[in-house]
Amino acid sequence: MLGSIAGPHDVKRLAAEELPRLAGEIRDLLVDSCARFGGHLGPNLGVVELTIALHRVFDSPRDPIVWDTGHQSYVHKVLTGRAGGFDALKQEGGLSGYPSQAESEHDFVENSHASTALSYADGLAKAFKLRGERDRTAVAVIGDGALTGGMAWEALNNIAAVKDLPVVIVVNDNGRSYSPTIGGLASHLSSLRVNRRYEDFLDYVKDKIGNVPVLYDALHGVKKGVKDVLAPQVMFEDLGLKYVGPIDGHDEQAMEAALRKARGFRGPVIVHALTQKGRGYTPAENHDEDQFHSPGAFDRATGAEKPKGRIWTNVFSEELVRLGKEREDLVAITAAMLHPTGLNAFAEHFPERIYDVGIAEQHALTSAAGLALGGLHPVVAVYATFLNRAFDQLLMDVALHRLPVTVVLDRAGVTGDDGASHNGMWDLSILQVVPGLRIAVPRDGDRLAELLREAVEVTDGPTVLRFPKGPVAGSVEAVGKLGEMDVLLTPAAEPDVLLVGVGPMAQVCLDAAALLDAQGIAATVVDPRWVKPLDEALAPAAAVHKLVAVVEDNGRVGGVGDAVARLLRDAEVDVPVRTFGIPQEFLDHAKRAAILGRVGLTGQDLARRITEAVARRTSSAAEPARR
User: Fold this and answer.
1) Which of 228, 321, 599, 602 lies at 20 to 30 Å from 119 by C-alpha?
2) Catalytic residue among 256, 319, 361, 552
3) Cα 100 from Cα 419, distance rounded (Å)
4) Torsion on CA atoms 246, 247, 248, 251, rounded to nearest 10
5) Catalytic residue (choose from 27, 389, 438, 443)
6) Could you give the angle at the alpha carbon of 100 between the alpha carbons of 51 and 167, nearest 5°?
7) Which pLDDT belongs to residue 516?
8) Can you tell me the distance from the alpha carbon of 331 to that of 285, in angstroms, rounded to the nearest whole number?
9) CB 68: neighbour CB atoms within 10 A?
10) Is 493 exposed, middle or buried (0-12, 13-18, 19+ CB in 10 A)?
């Protein structure tokens, strides 16, 4: 049946009795694809019927459907003609794991950071009103934790203030155990709530008996009391939003009926759908940790994930537990990422010292500030890309007060498969402006453990520790010290180039140095360990070289390279600095190694470019003598 689905119009023409077969084929496709490549399987298995109903009721893309978070959009991609693309899910040149405007007109926004869909929908619906496009509805599907983010509630507050705003909000509730509201009376009440005549009647009663408030309050109280019994989610109506549900999100016909009522209301409506994460695939349904939220490649028959080997996150997780045993003041905070950031082990050992704040990075940082003010040392573990959301809190709530908070950034630098929004390529730039902040970047697992220990010993300001995604790098031992920096290579000949390798880029610098040596160019390689503030010993070391090259897994603008250049300028060291990093652009999804190669962050690329730079400098220096 999937072969006949070229777009939503094909979904609309199917008979109701054909839809279970379509749902089954979609689930088979999702399991097969994610078994090969990994992906957000659990959330998408849970929204199959819900998504079918959406595309039978609304007219995408005229009625834009915004997904929050965007990893719930796989079924949407299937129903908008992209089933064939799942043969290369998340692969270079293949289908993105998130909505992508480049893929389809049905993907309105590329939202992979959570809790944003309601704000998008608010703006879209207001635009439709102002443009006189009364037949359009903005649809936001929010769930899988996104309602734990404060931004979602800010948007709800604004949406509720405009009574005729054409917004339908589908709450995909896959984490609660409320029983669906069933029966004729419940259905009738749901219909009443989205019936304009019912609203007009309430207004009429209020106008006519408004001078008898006790009577009106009694009528209103009866209405509220009945709904409180039948629909426990009345908090939405307390905000002024019409509410339909709870609905069984796997009953496609019930979902269709609810969505049609909501669309016909022509005002903001919440449709509350109860779904089961991992629905239809037994290993996912029985997976206690997260119902196969985002597994790597796995065996389809058993659900067993293929071994990943030892990754950077494992090293952090183990060392934090060791530190927790040594220090009772150490506490940890996660923003709905307990297992992905490795804090689950700390939680098992110290359940009273772990705080999961939900998808609320801003709150996480300011709560950490409060914990520090109370005499504790918080460790906040987040993905590097999500720290962007809490910059103000780190700056004004933590750093301003010089508080000992350690922020651990997992998935820093190029992450690859999850696309542009998940590359952690901004932190070394935006954090440079924070006074009193120290940043450590380990080159291998041993240095990660070492620097984490150093970070939590700091008492007069915040620290940041960042490391990449994937297998942990093999140990690279120092051959000497330069101030507090590690010297990884000292040339036998008079040095030409000083290579400053930031974290994992230290190995890339060593690879480049070997190739440069073959060209007769002698290179010193150092690892700063702490890149903010930079070690003052870097300036005199640079002065005895002809060229300084800084290599970092971060955007080039405002990163460590710029900081090194500024340090040398301030020290009046007149040696040119070349910065090698990630271009300031949004990167298409691909494997980390492929992206690093594409942007020139390999030993071979560095050796070639540095050789050219040395040659130009040598030629320029020789020019006056020839004249």
Assistant:
1) 228
2) 361
3) 10
4) 180
5) 389
6) 50
7) 95
8) 32
9) 34
10) exposed
Which residues partner with 582 through β-bridges?
A: 555
**Rounded Cα–Cα distance for residues 470 and 474 (Å):** 12
Give the C-alpha separation, 49 to 582, whole Å: 41
Distance CA 349, CA 238 (A): 40
Confirm if 600 and 580 have CB atoms less than 8 A apart.
yes
Residue 263 annotated as catalytic: no
Measured at the CA of 295, the angle between CA 505 and CA 98, to 5 degrees, comes to 75
Around Cβ 239, how many Cβ atoms within 10 Å? 16
Task: Give the strand order in the sheet containing 523-527.
Answer: 480-482, 485-489, 523-527, 497-501, 547-555, 577-582
Cα(first)–Cα(last) distance of the chain, in Å?
Answer: 78
| Block residue for tokens 């990630």 | 582
Torsion angle in degrees (nearest 10) through CA of 58, 61, 63, 67: 90
Give the integer Cα–Cα distance in Å for 167 and 64.
Answer: 10
Cβ(22)–Cβ(14) below 8 Å: yes
The label of the residue with tokens 């219909």 reads 191
Return the DSSP state at 298. B
3 state DSSP class of 114: coil
Residue 502's φ and ψ, nearest 5 degrees, are -90, 115
Tens digits of per-residue pLDDT, 277-316? 888 888 888 887 778 787 888 888 888 888 778 999 999 9
Residue with tokens 């796997």: 250
Q: Is-catalytic flag, 277?
A: yes
> Beta-carbon neighbour count of residue 201 at 10 Å?
12
CA distance 599 to 580: 9
Partners of 67 in beta bridges: 141
Which token pair is 563?
């900081």
Which run of H or of E encompasses 30? Answer: helix 19-37
Instruction: Please choose, from the candidates 78, 55, 83, the residue with its C-alpha nearest in 3D space to the C-alpha of residue 141.
Output: 55
Sheet of 269-274, strands arranged across: 65-68, 138-143, 167-173, 269-274, 242-248
Nearest alpha-carbon partner for 144 in 231, 220, 41: 41
61: preceding bond cis by omega (within 30 degrees)? yes
Using a cut of 0.90, tell me whether the model's pTM lies above it. Answer: no
Cα–Cα distance, 78 to 361 (Å, whole number): 32
Question: Residue 269, SS3?
Answer: strand
Is 450 known to be catalytic? no
Q: What is the rounded distance in angstroms from the CA atom of residue 345 to the CA atom of residue 381?
A: 13
Residue in 27, 242, 261, 277 annotated catalytic? 277
